[in-house]
Amino acid sequence: DIQMTQSPSSLSASVGDRVTITCRASQSISPFLNWYQQPPGKAPKLLIYTVSTLQSGVPSRFSGSGSGTDFTLTISSLQPEDVGTYYCQQGYITLAWTFGQGTKVEIK
Amino acid sequence: EMQLLESGGGLVQPGESLRLSCATSGFTFTNYAMNWVRQAPGKGLEWVSGISGSAVNTFYADSVQGRFIISRDNSRNTLHLQMNSLRAEDTALYYCAKANDYWSFDLWGRGTQVTVSS
User: Would you place residue A96 in the very low, low, confident or very high pLDDT band (cuts 50, 70, 90)?
Assistant: First the structure.
């Protein structure tokens, strides 16, 4: 299985801050890297797919980048509604997908 | 509007069985692979099982291989997960999730809770 490792495991930032979350895969998976947001007590929601493509309806303050094994999710200006846990997921191996362990984002 | 609605969760004893269902609407069901993803209490997301649009191909995580069976009824736009020989470590919120053309999960249900305890 492809292992996905996220960092940090949690972070606390102020409204308006730039926030960066990283995800590393145990082997090259480009371009099949996706990001999800899970608000507290709710189902996950797709934010970004194939590294950098914004899902319809997702605010433009979210962006993704990276290649090979190293990827980044950036929130350009953190908002109160962005609180939750963020997960990366590899779609490289069809129907044997794995997630990162999650990054919990809180407002300072 | 596209929707997924899970049902069938509950409290069972170790070794027992449970069948989950996911009713879908708002999209052409047969065109997409469908999946089950679970989340144990306080833990992260774990992909459990997936099935191709035609139902020809099925896939399982190692943790459930040989115990769970995924299926779909394309005439009723419904996904199922037959869970046998349940263990305490299967306790989780089970989500139904639609895969898009880029191998990501673009639509999720609200989940159904499965608790395995004696």
Answer: confident
